[in-house]
Every structure is written in C-alpha cells, then in structure tokens.
Amino acid sequence: MKITLTLNRKRRTVDVSPLERLLDTLRGALGLTGTKEGCGEGECGACTVLLDGKPVNSCLVPTAQCSGAAITTIEGLAPRGKLHKLQRAFLECGGAQCGICTPGMILAASALPDRPTREQIRTGLAGNLCRCTGYEKIYDAVGVALGTKK
Amino acid sequence: MKSPVRQFELLRPRTLREALTMLHNESGLVPLAGGTDLLVLMNAGTLPRGTHRFLDLWGLDELRSIRRTLIGRRPQLVFGALTTFTDCISSRTVLRDLPILAQAAREVGGPQIQNRGTLGGNIGNASPAADSLPVLRAADTELVLSSVAGERRIPLADYFTGYRTSVRRSDELITAIEVLVPPGKQSFRKVGTRAAQAISKVVLAAIGKRIALGSVAPTVVRATSVERYLAAGGSEFETARELLTDDIHPIDDIRSTAAYRLRVAQNLLGQLPTFQR
Amino acid sequence: MKCVGKNVLRAEGEDKVTGRAKYIDDLSFPGMIYGHTVRSSVARGRILSVARDPAFDWGGFTLVDHRAIPPGGRNIVAMIVEDQPFLAVDEVRHREEPILLIAHADPERLAEAVAHIEVHYAPEPAVLDLEHATTVLKELTISKGDLEQGFAQADRVVEGSYFTGAQEQLYIEPNGVIAVPGVDGKSITVYGSMQCPYYVQRALRLLLGLDETQVRVVQTTTGGGFGGKEEYPSILAGHAALLACAAGRPVKMVYDRLEDLVATTKRHPARIRHRTGVQRDGTLVAMEIEVDLDGGAYVTLSPVVLSRASIHATGPYRAPHVRVRGRVLQTNTPPTGAFRGFGAPQSQFGIELHMDRIAEELGIDPVALRQKNLYASGDVTATGQRLDGSVSAHEVLERALQRHVKKKRPKKKDGLLRGTGVATFFHGSGFTGGGEVKLASRAGIELTPRNVRLLVGSTEIGQGTRTMHAQIVADTLAIPYEWVETADPDTARVPDSGPTVASRTCMVVGRILQRAALDLQQALGPYRTPDEFRRRSRKLLAKRPALQFIAQYDRPGDIRWDDATYQGDAYGAYAWGCNIADVEVDPITYQARCTRLTAVIDIGKAIHPLLACGQIEGGSLQAVGWALYEEVVMRDGRMANGQLTNYIIPTTLDTPEILVELVENPYPHGPFGAKGVGECPVDGPAAAILNAIRQATGVRLNAIPATPEKIMQAMDAR
Ligand SMILES: Cc1cc2nc3c(=O)[nH]c(=O)nc-3n(C[C@H](O)[C@H](O)[C@H](O)COP(=O)(O)OP(=O)(O)OC[C@H]3O[C@@H](n4cnc5c(N)ncnc54)[C@H](O)[C@@H]3O)c2cc1C
Ligand code: FES
Ligand code: FES
Questions:
Q1: Residue C198: what are its φ and ψ, rounded to 5°?
Q2: Which of C111, C635, C640 has its CB closest to that of B1?
Q3: CA C423/CA C687 separation, integer angstroms
Q4: Does A2-77 carry CATH code 1.10.1040.10?
Q5: C396-419 residue pLDDT tens
Q6: What is the mean pLDDT of residues C512-523?
C-alpha cells in the first residue's frame, strides 16, 4: 500500500507491505541506515525515531500507521553538514563508543525538556540500552547539550 | 525468526463505525492499536497460528480521550481505548483522581513504549503481568465492548476468563474503560525484573481496603479473602498474610519463582497503611 | 601540540553521531542474497536425517551442508584444538549446533523455507552443567613453595566455594557478515562485525583450502564486541563463505537477537574453591585453589581463558605457598568463549569473596586484611614472577578509600538495608606467558603526501583504538593528531597486529606502532617542526612512493616464561584496581541495587583520559549486571531467556553513580607508560557488591547473579 509521510521535513511516498515495520521502510526503501536494529522487541531503543515529535521504537511501528505523520531520524536532526548540539556533545563528551546505540540515544534525548535534571535524563533514556559506556558519558553529553546545571 | 510480513493484511477503517462493520463482516481480524505487544510477536515469529489480518485502530481519534464525570460524589474517569501511557502520565485528571494509574504508566517499559502502548491494548493483550490492570481492578472498572449490535458493559472483574482469555467476542472492540474511583488512600508498587523496561514479577495496587495483584495468578486478581477479613474488622497482618495465599496462585517461570512472588506479595501487603500502625 | 593525555575528538566519532557510520547490516552488494543457519534441537545425538518438505517450492534456494566443503578444505574451525566442525557431520554435541545452511534472495522466503526443513536425531545422554561434568578438556597446575608446609604454619584454615554464571556479551549490534565470492571462483572477501580479521582469515583459509592472497577479510564498523566477536565471527564467516561459493553471489548473514543469544558464546560459568592457611594477624601463608570452568561442547579458546583465570586466582595477594589447579570441563552446551576479562573476573570474584570471609573469621577489618597481603614491589607471584616497578595495589586501595568516603551520603530512614563492600584486583596486560612472542604481531605506518596512515590490524570496536593509536603516533612523530589517519582493518592492506583482545591494543600494539614511527623518523632524518616533517616526507616520497614502515613485536626486557611448568613472567605488566560499592537491599522485595561504585585503576598512562574513563565505566556496569541481573537460564541445554526482555542488562535506572579515578604508574615498555585498561574494570565490582550485600543483610551469598530470589532464600536461611 502507498503511504505518504513527512520524513526529516520532506514529504515522501513509499509503497510498503501492510505490516512492514517503519524500521525496515526507513532502512530499505527510504535508504536511511542511521536507524539501527538491536533486538526487534522494543527493548534496546537502537531503532528510536521521533514520530510526531515523540520517541518511538521503529521496530514496533507499522509504516502504515505513519500515514500523514512526521518522522525524524538521526539523518534529519540537523541540517546537512551541521551537527545538532546533542551530536556535538556526544562527540566531545565520549557519549558514543561503538556507536550502535547512539542514533537512538540521541533521538530519545532530543525529546527531553531544556535543562533536564540528571534524574530526568535517566528517566528519558530508560528505553535505550547502551552496553559500552555505563551511561555516565551519555548523561554528561546530554547535560552539556541541553544546559543542565552541574 | 521474524514472521514474513508479506502474509499480513491490514484493514484501515476511518471511523469506529467502519471498524465495527469490518469486524462484523470478516472473521479472524485482530485489532492492532500501538502494536507494542503484537509487533513483538510478529518480529519473533510467535504470533498465534492463523493470525494474518489486522484491523488498524491507531487512526480512530474518537477513541483517544480522557473524560471525567461525577457519579454521586465519586469521580468517574472514562478512557478511550487508545489512551496511551504517556496520556495517562500527563493527564491532570488522572494525577488528581487516580494518581496510581499515572504511576503505573510511568513504570511501563520506557518512554518509547509509553508513547505507543495503549490501555485498550494492555487489557486486550490479557497478560497477567499488565501493569494497568491491578490499578483498574482496585477501582470499580467497567469495559465498554462495542460491536455493530451495540455496546455492552462488562465489569473488569468478569472480563478475563483465564490465562490470556476473555469474554470479548471477535466482533467486539474495547472502546472505553470506565473507572469509578472509590474513596481511600491509593498505593501502587511494581516489582519487576529491573527498574525500567521490566516485566512485573509482582504488582500490588490498593485503594482503601480494596487490593488487587498482578503477575501472581492467571489473571489480575483481588485479594478477596484479605479484603473480607479487613471488612470484618480484622487488622492482624499475620492473619492477612496467610489469607493471601488463598487469593493468589503464583508460578515458577524464567523470570522468577512462585515462592518469591508469594513472599513479595505478602510483604507488599504488609506495607499497606492498614498494617503499618 | 602534544596530544597524548588530551581528550582529542574520537577519530570516527562524527560518523557515529550522525548515523553515517556503516555497520554490516547497513551494507549491501549487487546480487546479494541472505543466509540462515539450521541448528540442532537436541543437546547431544546422532543425526539420522535432514529432510526437506517435497511439497515446498525449493526453487531459488541455495542449500549447503558439510559436504559442500571443497576438496582441500577442512571442516574444522581453526582454533587451539581441531575438534569443532563448521557444520555437523553425523553427530551434534550441543543445542543450536549448525547443521545446514540455506540462502535466498528474499529473506521472507527464507523464513518460510526454514519451517519446511526437519532434522531427525537419535538423542544421546547429555551433560548439561558444570555440576555434572566429568570430561576434562584442559588441566593445568601452578605451584609455588610447599603447600603442606604452608598449612603447617597457619593458625587457621578457611575454606569456601564460589560460583559465577554464564554471561552474554550483549553487544547491541548482533553478529553479522557478508561474504563476496571472487569472480575467479577461487577467492573470497568477507566483510563483517568482528574483533580479529586475521583470525577470520585463518579460519577461512583452513575451511576453503585457500592461501592468504585468496582470502580477504575486512572489518566493518563494529557495534560492540567485548570478546563476543573474538572467535565466533570465524564460524559465521565460514558459513557465509560456503553459501557464497555455492551460490556464486554475495551472501549476507546477520543474526537476529534470539539467534545471537542462544547460539553464540558466553562467559564461562565457573566454580572456584579456596582453602587458605592464615596466621592470626591475617598473613596468608598457604593458598590452595581450584578453578573449574564450563567450556561447553568444544575446546575453542577455553585453555587460554583457563590460564588467565588460574594466574589471577590468587588475586593481588602475596603468599609463600600456593597451588592453583585449573580445569575446563566439557558440557553439552554451546561453547563458552571470550568475554572481557577472559576468566580473571571469575577467579577474582572467588578470591575477593574469600578474603572477606577470612577477615570475618579472624575478626579483622577486610580492608586491613587486604592491606596486609597486597602485592608490593619486589613480591613474587604464584608463577614466580618478581614484580618490580609499576605495582600499585596499595595505592589504588588508598585512593579508592579516600575518594569513596569523600562522598558520604546522609543516613536515611527508609527501611533499606545498606552496606559497603570492597574488592582489590589486578589484570595482566597482553597475552599470557609466551603468547605475545608467538603472535609476533606487526603494525606499521605508511607515509602519504598529506599525512601518515596507520596500518594496523587492531580493530576499533568502540574502545577508541583508532584515536589512541593516532595519538601515540602523532606524539612520537611530534606532528598534529589530525595528520594521522588509520587504514581500515583489511587483511589485504594491513599487517597482522594480533587479535584485538586481552587489553593489548594500547600497550602491545601501541608500542609496535611507536617503534614503526621511530623507524620512519630515522628514515626522515632530524626535523624540528611538523612543517619540516612534511617537507622531508615529501622529499622522501618523491624518491620512493608508497613508503611503509612495518615493525614487529619484540620482547621487552628479559621477560621469560615456561609453558610446561607454568612458571615465569605471566604478563609484562599489570593494571591494578580497587572497587568500593555501596549497595541498598530492599527487605520487602529482596532487590539489591548498587547505588555508587568507585573504581580506581592504575593503567600506566591514560593516552586519552576520557576514553579510558569510558572503558572503566562501561566495564564496571557490565560487571554490575553480571553481579545482580544477568542470568542465562538454561533449559535442556538451551538458553531459555533468549530475549532482551528476559536477559536483563542494566538500564539507565539500574545504574549506580560510577566514580572513576585513574592512577598513572607507568610501565617503561608501554607507549608513554601505558598498560592495559579494557578488561581490568570487570574484575572487581561483582565481589565488591556481594561483600556489600553481606554487610547490608548479614547473609553471605557465594554465587552470582545475586537475584532477589537468591537473596530471599539466603535471608530465609539465616
Ligand atoms: C519493551 C516493552 C516493554 C513493556 N513494558 C510493559 C510494562 O512495563 N507493563 C505493561 O503492562 N506492559 C508492558 N509492555 C506491553 C505493552 O506495551 C502493553 O501491553 C501495551 O499496553 C499494549 O498496548 P498496544 O496498544 O501497544 O497493544 P497492541 O500490541 O496493539 O495490542 C495488544 C493486544 O490487545 C488487542 N487490542 C488492542 N486494542 C484493542 C481494543 N481496543 N479492543 C480489543 N482488543 C484490543 C490486540 O488485538 C492485541 O491482542 C511492554 C512492551 C514492550 C515491547
Ligand atoms: S530494535 Fe527496536 S527496540 Fe531494539
Ligand atoms: S556506545 Fe556501544 S552500545 Fe552504546
């Protein structure tokens, strides 16, 4: 079936199988491989994208349900050639090690309020697993990017 | 292995009416809301045999609302089936009248799951570990089941018939959840496998002297014997603790043991204000 | 301009934060098809038949079993012992053992086809856990002094047994490769997520009977490894290569999470027994230790895991009389394998719990007991190694005590039981014993008109290899960090620098690179500024294009090792560490939470402090998971909780505050003094946490994970 959605601020129409996962549509027909699959069960958050501004696991969302919706992936977070403040902070603060959780982590973080407390950061990222960092440098990066007071 | 998606069909009604008609006319249609249960099964290749055709509820905005009325002096909250956990967390009405539902919602999965998981799906999935159920059971909850023939109201207490089974007919949808909030102090405690993204090992919700538990029986249960004892004026924890063994029937599984579930359920019971004097 | 010791930007960091980095599943080749593995469903038995449903349309499928291995090739996974086949022939020794491979252009057809294949077995009795295992795959003994004499000097003998469970590495990117057959039909290229491209190359050569020019292996951006991508990718690459050869097309095989969990390696479950002679004042005089590891169905890397486990089994403590007996036992479960720490976390878990038990029996403070026995410069280890320079056992403990106490929490009245526990540990950097000499690793530098390019087989798997190597070379050459780039790990382009394991990539390979840099400097002649460096390199290049300087490992100083007697210098250098853990136990739910973990570790020199801290924080959290949450539930020889929803690793909300402090006690033969850092952080936290639980609750657990169910049982038994 044909589905029209707004992907990273551009309107796109894709032809998908009715229960195709948004994750597969993004990585396949739409050619954006920045969104990762770590489990396919909603646990790891590596596949996190923003659906109408809210973080969701794209491995659990049928593309067909995104008709008319706005999707943001890691590729669309900042204008081409620029880094979003979260991306810069992850780079500078050591928030990305192997990097496989990073796109999802950054998108989940992008939904946090300004100047989040460390508790808010932890709660906001509770749906994203990272096996490399122990999360500390991720909290630092998010704090730096979003203006958390030390 | 992931189920081949090619085999699946999705019907996309624009209105509830249309949805009910589709359900009526075609057999084997499975309602699909936020997909946080169904897509996990699809990805794991473990959908029940014969599940091929889905009915997409996600677009039915008329099922997305939280309304409050007063019945006598008791507040009644009416949730559309598509109310998400995030909706519960951010609803001022819920925070005021049924704060333990917001608390339960906050402890569901992580933000991504809360943004997609619905109350209707939590009930429809009929898992004994569903976290909203003990809260709804501790209150007076009725489910509105709709079909082309009309609506019927079923008390949540009568909805589940056993492990993952219910009285819902295949041509019916859960359209609303009506929760009459009894007076009394509310409390909720989830004991899961970890602090987030956790399946419950034991959940206890209480409103006044009404006590409901999850993950300790084939369906959510009320601690009927304990409640009867309390209603008759009993207040000894030791007695209540023994009585609880009649009310729940926990099992061993890969996540925990029956012994642990029973003990923790008893301990949670002991934390209720009634026994904390 | 110096960049060593500074937090320069991670070399490949921008690609990772923008999503541009290409992991194996992000790649695709023209004509590529998808492969899948059909695995055994019994723990042990003979294969009677493999049947395909004749009613199913098999058109377009490629199917491969052991008979497809070309003449000249061998059905053996190249490792230490030749016992493991790529594909079962007529028997299976564990659940999920590969039997048949199948590929198709459409992954959905593949899923359909798998349901139409049936394997019939004649099951045989299986041994499913360490408790019942009797077949010994490897045994070794380390002796020092005279144990009997030691026990005779003791005022007291303290005994204890300790158990650790299997642990999944749980890299977030599952294992995956793509095999691309050569047009000549006689060569193959494999791309994939892996730690050791040259291991994979060796395995493919043996499997296919090809030489090194015919097998090319390229590491793609790798989403975590932790040992789980050390030896396993050899098997997966072999499978994809067999399918690719048979189909004549590129074949992608990427495991889904379930397959990755149930079929690939885990940390060895262990049983550690201690019998220790101590004097009244706490002096250790005799240590008798037994280390038993569950190796699973095949030998794989177990002998070397055992050797590291056994050497570390005494902990960082001096004792005149020691005997360690280590064994790997066979069970009919999927082979266990490399996991960060490589046996040392298991054996040091044992000794660190045991030290607290000794302290308690003697009525001595556990910290004081440690202080009394910790290694100091001049002490001799169980293998007879004299520790001179760079011994920081006491210092890390002192600093951890200072650091931890400084952040005291106000007492709360919330009914939670609180305790604090300590663990001290050490970790040998690099391969054990003569391993590095045997490896004879090589790495080098290529001079280009614009910069220098590192040619190194070590892989970036998140730990910061590229960044740290570039820093070492930049400072050695006194040029800017930005001028150093790194060639992709590709066996056709870079030399074999040995595997990316064993905390050797900085200390050992970094040192080789440094020596290559010195060779380059020699060739250039003296220069004073980076610009002059550039002018001189261009001049040199004008004469000789593509200039490479490859250096080889050379044994530093007078390190000696005897494999037959297990005596000598087990490691060139050791990292030293101390953990202090605060734990809260909820008496209502029996859940233990680690709320704060201090980690003080001597790594010689932090080439990149931020990366080093990141290694310590990440490793520490893996150990917290191992201690409290991570349980591989086995049923009939198969992991029963093969989903992330049931195999529990810590989320942000389960994570303690982790306080890291680096100590820099340099090792003269490491680059800028650096020792290993990657594995050491995993050695201590589990014991520190269990010791804290003991203090909080009064119960002594001797097994991990310390799940609430186990804590409840132990509290009941009090
Ligand atoms: C990572 C993860 C973590 C989770 N954590 C928790 C948790 O902590 N606590 C918890 O309780 N749950 C948890 N869940 C389960 C799930 O999110 C909830 O059960 C959620 O409420 C399901 O809602 P949904 O709309 O996504 O359901 P769907 O998957 O769309 O549907 C679930 C079932 O309900 C039926 N259904 C849906 N809507 C209706 C309707 N209106 N009428 C009739 N039948 C209907 C469907 O046919 C299906 O059988 C988790 C899931 C995941 C993947
Ligand atoms: S891949 Fe979607 S949550 Fe893990
Ligand atoms: S950086 Fe590797 S999983 Fe997070």
A1: -75, -25
A2: C111
A3: 6
A4: no
A5: 999 999 999 765 565 667 899 999
A6: 96
